[in-house]
Amino acid sequence: MTQQQLGGLSFRRSVDQMVDRALGVMQVTPDVAEAIKACASVLQVSFPVNIRGRVELFTGWRAVHSTHRLPSKGGIRYAPNVDQPEVEALAALMTYKCSIVSVPFGGSKGGLRIDPSKYTRDEMQTVTRRFARELASKGFLSPAMNVPAPDVGTGQREMAWIADTYKQLHPEDVNYVACVTGKPVDHGGIQGRTEATGRGVQFGLREFFRHPEEVRRTGMDGGLDGKRVVIQGLGNVGYHAAKFLSEEDGVRIVAIVERDGVIVDPNGLDVEAVYQYLVAHGKVEGFPGAAFDADGAKGLLLECDILIPAAVEGVIHEGNAAAVQAKLVVEAANGPVTSEGDRVLRDRGVEILPDAYANAGGVVVSYFEWIRNLTHMRFGRLERRFDEARGEELVSALEAIGGTPLQHYLRSKLAKGADELDLVRSGLDDAMRIALHEIIELRNSDEQIEDYRTAAYVIALRKLSKAYIYVGEI
Ligand code: GLU
Q1: φ, ψ at 212 (rounded to 5°)
Q2: For residue range 262-273, what is the model confidence (pLDDT) as tens digits?
Q3: Torsion of CA 223, 224, 227, 229, to 10 degrees
Q4: To pair with 2 at 20 to 30 A between CA atoms, which of 129, 147, 203, 358?
Q5: Quick check: 474 pLDDT over 70?
Q6: Is there an atom of ligand 1 within 6 Å of 236 CB?
Q7: CA-to-CA distance for 472 and 189, rounded, in angstroms?
Q8: Per-residue pLDDT at 252 exceeds 70
């Protein structure tokens, strides 16, 4: 069977194989391993919606991989080819992801088989609200048990519709707004959630480059400044990661791969300009000053320092991994490298920051949003002005002692009380730093562990097996 025919099945196998590699270096018995890998429950729904005078049947899934912590958490994907095994694989990844960055949630994922580009906004709203009703009425949507978020093909808009549908069904639930994350900021969302996954990729890479021995392992040296980066996918994750890395860390985005092909500029592309061009024209072809090739797959094989696949699963596989020229692959998408592709890259010494770590920024900030919703208050609301007044007193004291006024930038930095965005960024940075530190430490202390992915999974699996053992489930 071809990769295409296998669909999500090959993805699920791929995730299982990677987990098996980690289980192989742990003292976990096969029965416990099976219990950890199994999906706890899956809901499949089919529902009719009247669209332009015709009845269309939509099919969707919500898989719950783990419930050792509640709620179970993970996005909802809208795509024409989504299937149950794919959703199950993505739900399992959510379990490991949450565990790696110490977010106290189980793992879940949803998918609806739909091509959003074929429907109007109103039609999408009708379909989304109907899907949300199906999920809520069957116990797969609630602040306590199962909390979706955006994923491929969904965003703030869908999350607002889902939250409102749940509210109509459960007006007595004082925490109704926490039933979904990734909402618009004025509808219970949190500052910094939209860009959180891209920001997390940036924070993860920054942390990586704080470890010169790890950087040397890849064959690179120095800092992020001037590194040549190829990015695949200028969606929410890819756009923000590429924008922040190029504008704030001095990396050169030498190529951007999109649906219609790849654009290349060895001097570095202006990410914001490319994004605006893509929004206006629906393609990257014709972007001024860049070379274009309609064969986008070639973009993944270009010479560069860092390759960031930020689109869909399975793009680096047995058939092309040998030709990847990057020194470091950062999995901003879920499952962009198949387990065979992973083996080929490992054999060649190409390092990978795995998805379950690299793209965890989204769920970290989702966790903050959920907490914000449960407290019914934005972060920083109580202490911000107090901290500001303290800071001003400190500035005055320093000026009195020193006898001269402080420089303006120092004065405003010291006197600033943290607002919600400051706190979200600080919390995200902390999560990404601690997690990578643990991954690096484990890899360097256990000679059986030869790659970051295995180290990350071992960390996740250890926490998970403890959680199961404590409650006597295994
Ligand atoms: N869909 C995102 C992911 O794959 C975010 C999940 C969430 O925030 O719950 O990590």
Answers
A1: -55, -35
A2: 999 999 999 999
A3: 150
A4: 358
A5: no
A6: no
A7: 37
A8: yes
User: In this structure, how many other beta carbons lie within 10 angstroms of the beta carbon of residue 303?
Assistant: 11
Nearest to 52 by CA among 127, 115, 111: 127
358 and 241 in a single domain? The answer is: yes
Cα distances (angstroms) measured from residue 285 to each of 266, 267, 269, 278:
17, 18, 14, 9
Q: Do 311 and 331 belong together in one domain?
A: yes
122 and 226 housed in the same domain: no
Asked whether residue 395 is assigned to any structural domain, the reply reads no
Domain that holds residue 339: 1-10+17-38+190-383+418-474
- Can you read off the two tokens belonging to residue 424? 């979200």
CA 112 / ligand 1 centre spacing (Å): 15
Q: Which of 37, 73, 97, 109 is catalytic?
A: 109
Instruction: Give residue 260 CA to ligand 1 midpoint distance, Å.
Output: 26
Q: Is the CB of 334 under 6 A from ligand 1?
A: yes
Q: Identify which of 86, 363, 367, 424 to mutate to test ligand 1's pocket (most ligand atoms within 8 A of the CB).
A: 363
Q: Is 109 a catalytic residue?
A: yes
* Domain containing residue 239: CATH number: 3.40.50.720
Same domain, 352 and 374: yes
Distance 294 CA to ligand 1 centre (A): 31
List b or e across 183-194, with b for residues whose CB sees 16 or more CB atoms inside 10 angstroms: bebeebbbbbbb
The reply to whether 127 falls in a domain is yes
In a domain, 80, yes or no: yes
Question: Taking the complete model, does pTM exceed 0.90, yes or no?
Answer: yes
Q: What is the pLDDT of residue 1?
A: 46
Q: 238: Cβ below 6 Å to ligand 1?
A: no
Q: What average pLDDT does the segment 332-356 reach?
A: 98
**What is the Å distance from ligand 1's center to 166 Cα?**
19
| Ligand 1 neighbour 75 (Cβ under 6 A) | yes
- CATH code, domain with 60: 3.40.50.10860
Q: Is residue 451 part of a domain?
A: yes
The pick from 366, 367, 368, 371 for probing ligand 1's pocket by mutation, whose C-beta has the most ligand atoms within 8 angstroms, reads 366
26 in the same domain as 112: no
Per-residue pLDDT of 189-198, as tens digits, reads 999 999 999 9
Q: Do residues 34 and 65 share a domain?
A: no
Mean pLDDT of the chain: 96
* Whether 143 and 212 share a structural domain: no
Q: Indicate the number of domains in the chain.
A: 2
Lowest mean per-residue pLDDT among 21-30, 38-47, 134-143, 390-399: 21-30
Task: For ligand 1, say whether the CB of 151 is within 6 Å of any of its atoms.
Answer: yes
